Amino acid sequence: MVYLVRMDASGNIEKYKAEIFLSPDGFVPLSLKIPVIPVIHDINFHHRPMDLPLTSRLYYRYFFPKFASRAARIATVSEYSRQDISKSYNINPSKIEVVYNGSHELYKPSDPEIKKSVKDRYTDGVNYFLFVGSLHPRKNVDGLLKAFDIFKKQSQSDFRLLIVGEKFFKNSALEQTYSLMHYRTDVIFTGRKEPQELSLIMAAAWALAFVPHFEGFGIPLLEAMHCDVPSVASNVTSLPEVAGDTAVYVNPDDIHDIAGGLSRMSSDFQLRESLIANCRNQREKFSWNKTAEKLWNTVQSAME
After folding, report:
1. What digits encode the pLDDT tens for the residues 208-258?
2. To which H or E segment does residue 199 belong?
C-alpha cells in the first residue's frame, strides 16, 4: 500500500499502516520508520540561496540534505538534477532515479485561424516571443527584458514580448528594468492564465523565450515542443537535456547573447523550421505515462 500525503500528516501514515512514503514535493517526516522516497525536483536553493527569503533559504538548505540522506530512493526530474544532488549531498547516484516530467494534453499545434485570433487578442496581430513562469530572480525575466530592448533597437522589428506569470518575490530589479526600457510598450504582462488559454497562447507564439539561471527541468520547454514552437533557451543546468535540438541556446548571464538568440530566431526562417521539425522527435521522450511507470518502478525498488 502506497500513500502520497503531506509532511504534516505523519499521524495518518502511522494510522493507515503505510508501507512506504512517497513525497511529491520532497518533504519527509524524518521520524518515520518506513522507507521514504522524496521527489527532489532540483536544489536551486543550494546554488542560488539569495533568490529566496531568509527563512525559506535556511529551511531548505538545512533540511533537504537530511531528506536526501534519509531516503530509501530519490526521484528527480533530470539527469542534471541527479548528478547535482549526488555531488552536492554526497549521495550515491545509483540511489537516485531520473523520472522525467510530462506535458498536459492541452498543449498541441493550433490551426492558423486560431493563432491569428490569439495574436489579435494579445499583440494586435503581431508575432511575439513568449515567456511562461513565475516572476522571480531565478527565472531571469530582468535579463530577458534587457535583452529584448537590445534586440528591438538592433532589429527594428515589430515583435512583441508576452510575459505570462505572477509576481513571486524580489521583483524590484524587474520593475526598475521595465520602467527604464525604451521598448516597454512592446512588452505585455498578462498575469497568470488558465491552462486552456495558456495552451493557445503557447501555440501561437513565434518562439518561447526561456532563459532562467537555473532549472531542474523546465516544463515550458516541453509544452512549447508539443505546440510545435521552438525556444530560445539557457545553455545551463537541465535545459539542454530537455530541449535537445529544439532551441537556440544562449548564456543567461549575457544579455547581448540573449538578444542575439532572439534575433536569430526572428530572422532565420530555415533555422526556425528545422527546430520545429525537431520538436516532433524530442517531445516523444517525455510523457506522463512514462513518468508514472518510472515512478512506480522506483517505489517497487525501494520496497525490495
Report:
1. 999 999 999 999 999 999 999 999 999 999 999 999 999 999 999 999 999
2. helix 195-204
Give the side-chain half-sphere CA count within 13 A for 292. 4
* 107 found inside a domain: no
Looking at the structure, tell me whether residues 206 and 230 fall in a common domain. Answer: yes
Whether residues 264 and 181 fall in one domain: yes
Q: Is residue 271 part of a domain?
A: yes
CATH of the domain at 70: 3.40.50.2000
Q: Which residue has the cell 506569470?
A: 165
User: 3-state DSSP call for residue 293?
Assistant: helix
176: its cell numbers: 526598475
pLDDT in tens, 69-122: 999 999 999 999 999 999 999 999 999 999 999 999 999 999 999 999 999 999
Domain assignment of residue 67, given as a range: 2-102+287-303
Kindly give, in sequence order, each residue whose CB lies less than 8 Å from that of residue 194, ignoring residues fewer than 6 positions away.
none
Domain count, the chain: 2
Element (H, E) at 233: strand 231-234
Confidence grade of residue 1 (pLDDT, cut at 50, 70, 90): very low
Listed in order, strand segments (DSSP E) in 40-180 are 74-76, 96-98, 128-132, 160-164
Give 23's strand partners.
38
Distance from CA of residue 70 to its chain's centroid? 27
**Distance in angstroms (rounded) separating the CA atoms of residues 34 and 127:** 54
Kindly report the pTM of this predicted structure: 0.93
